[in-house]
Amino acid sequence: MSELTGKVALVTGGSRGIGAAVAKRLAAEGAAVALTYVRAEEQARAVVKEIEAAGGRAVAVRADLAEAGAAERAVETAVRELGRLDILVNNAGFLTYGPLAEVTVEELDRVLAVDIRSVFLAAQAAARHLGEGGRIISIGSCFNGRVPGANFVLQATAKTALTGLTKGLARELGPRGITATIVDPGPIDTDMNPADGDSADFQRSLTALGTYGQAEDIAAAVAFLAGPGGRYVTGTALAVDGGYTA
């Protein structure tokens, strides 16, 4: 029997990259998975089909988490479609970078809405359904521990805010046996940050291993935290960054 057999997970931003890898790994461990997408419906359906072809159960849910009510609706849809909720993975994020002077109010509002507000609201909604052994896992960033240079102030602000939110969730929900954790990726080879991109060599140079990671590396860490091995881990972050913050 797989470690997550009988569990139900919701993975936000699960149509591609890290989110898709997480959804597929949790399904491989036995969980039924709901995954959200905004525009990439075809990619989301492809992830669902891959999970189903392997004998799992999955559903794709459209949700623009920049909208205030979308996170709660996604949680309720997952519960309605799959019967319960045991694991929430907050993966959706809005990537932007540039000089401080050029950051617009619209960019600030969208990043905070997706990266922070939606995490708060999803956790709030999920907490109504999670029972003993429930998990809230958020995907952060290596910027929590190290900002390598200029132009990352907005990204660093948003991802670092997850620390306080996660510690608060851990204290609030710990008495119910629910954990809250963060996985902080380093440079990961995805279509948003390809290993052959313009800044790839610079990012490699910041890691101790000198390499990019794969989305599956992050998925493995999430699966560990979601499973029995993560039962005594809460209120903290796990860096999967190739030594970026060493």
Q: What would the principal axes of the Cα set say about the shape?
A: globular
The share of residues in extended strands comes to 15-25%
| Overall pLDDT level | 96
Radius of gyration: 17 Å
Q: How many DSSP-defined strands? A: 9
What is the CATH fold-level name? Answer: Rossmann fold
Helix fraction bin: 40-55%
Number of helices: 7
Query: Which architecture does the CATH hierarchy give at level 2?
Result: 3-Layer(aba) Sandwich
- Report the structural category: alpha/beta
Strand order of the largest sheet: 3-2-1-4-5-6-9
Low-confidence spans: none
SSE string: EHEHEHEHEHEEHEHE
Termini gap: 37 Å
For the largest beta-sheet, the strand count, sense and barrel status come to: 7 strands, parallel
Structure explained in plain terms:
The strands form 2 sheets. Strands 3-2-1-4-5-6-9 form a 7-stranded parallel β-sheet, sandwiched between helices. Strands 7-8 form a two-stranded parallel ribbon. It is an alpha/beta fold. It contains 7 helices and 9 strands, in the order E-H-E-H-E-H-E-H-E-H-E-E-H-E-H-E. Helix 1 runs parallel beside helix 2, helix 3 (70-82) runs parallel beside helix 4 and helix 4 (105-126) packs parallel to helix 5. The protein has a single domain, classed as Rossmann fold, CATH 3.40.50. The model has no long low-confidence stretch (mean pLDDT 96). The chain is globular and about 45 Å long. 40% of the residues lie in helices and 16% in strands.
